Amino acid sequence: LRGLVLQALRNAWGICVSHGQLPPLPVPQKIVATWEIISLGRQPVPEYFNFAHDVLDVWSQLERAGHRPPIPAFWWVNSMGAEVKGSFEELGGQSRKAANVLGGTCGLQPGDRMLLLLPQLPERGLVSVACMRTGLVFMPGTSQLTAKDILHWLQASKAKCTVASEEVIPAVESIVSECPGLKTKFLLSPHSQNQWLSFQELFQTTSAEHSCVETGGQEPMAIYFSSGTTGSPKMVQHSQSSLRIGHTLCGSSMSGSFSFLPMLTSVSFSIIQPLTTYPITTLCSAPTVYWMLVQKDLKRCKFEKLLHCLIGGEPLNPEVLEQWKVQTGLMLYEGYGQTGIICANQKGQAIKPGSVGKGYYPMMSRWVISNWFNKEPVSVQHWSKFLMCVVKAFVVLSAPFKSSNPEKLTLELQDHVKKSTAPYKYPRKVEFVKELPKMITGKIKRNVLRDHEWG
Question: Which chain positions lie within coiled-coil regions (predicted)?
Answer without folding.
Answer: none
